[in-house]
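Subject: for your reference before the review

Hello V.,

The reviewers asked for a structural picture of the protein, and I figured it would be easier to keep everything in one thread rather than splitting it across files. Below is the amino acid sequence we used in the manuscript, unchanged from the supplementary table.
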Amino acid sequence: MSKMINFLKKKNIIFSGKRYGIDALGAMAQGLFCTLLVGTILNTIGQQFHIPFLNAVIVSLKSASGEAVVNYTIGGLASAMVGPGIAIAIGYALQAPALVLFSLIPVGFAANAMGGAGGPLAVYFVAILACECGKLVSKETKIDILVTPIVTTLVGIGVAAVVAAPIGAAASAVGNAVKWATLQQPFIMGILVSVIIGIALTLPISSAAICAALGLTGLAGGAAVAGCCAQMVGFAVMSFRENRWGGLVAQGIGTSMLQMPNIVKNPRIWIPPTLASAITGPLATCLFRLEMNGSAVSSGMGTCGLVGQIGVYTGWINDIAAGTKAAITPMDWIGLILICFVLPAILSFVFCHILRKIGWIKEGDLTLNL
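And here is what came back from the structure prediction:
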């Protein structure tokens, strides 16, 4: 047993919640961001500002007869690489050797394609298993250049052929159930989705990856956006006296995860933005009918790089193109601004002020080490 433990340690294979539940999941979100999300943003910019090189077809996949099957713009090509992007990001997070890392490219593509609507979650599980198996054989033979890529690829694609479709179907089913429940009970689900996804955003896990894995769009996606914005904008505003402009930008446009060390010291500082999310969530679903019909990953990004807002706008454009929405109305913009920026700032500031008055939050409790 000790030999096995030492061998796994030598191979840098560590079975822990942090490595698989935090490091790998966070890397999954980065892979999604650098492919699917960036591609969506580039396509939106190209279409809205009529930029020729962003709208031009740069790659055409052709059938055996020579006819074009799929045309890709720059953004479309970036989005199509989501499977390999996630797999490589996970491999990097798991500190995979070079040959294992590069072999994850076809593994990620296959798992994403086989997983269907829940492809990103399928890639997550398959890439982890393929990566760790590749690490087991890495540099164990004199023909490592052949053995490691073959083992990684065969294990990855073989496992994907068995589990990718069921995982994808399960993830899609859960996501559809959440979306259906939000339509049936927009008030209750608006609170639950907003609070849970918002908390996930501040925790050292990836809310973006969770939303992408579940395909969380529509009204439920709008609630998720509300929750994430409440956390980011809330912490940014309520900690302004301690962190000033640097903290405002770092948390409001970066991530509220920066407050995790302070939350561990005093969990009560989490109350104001969480209460804010419990209010903005149902307002988003019941009053403004705020929907995320862009990329699901955007639902879990909040105000990080304004990706959540760009995603909502992209959804509006998609709906107009599909004929399901006539135009972007003033109420749409008012709802987006209030839910994402104004209400989180006001509510969190007020709640924080009350908690400061009763001594639950003290001076310095929100100070960041920037």
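For the response letter, the relevant points are probably these. The two ends are 45 Å apart (CA to CA). The first helix runs from residue 2 to 10.

Happy to draft the paragraph if you're swamped.

O.
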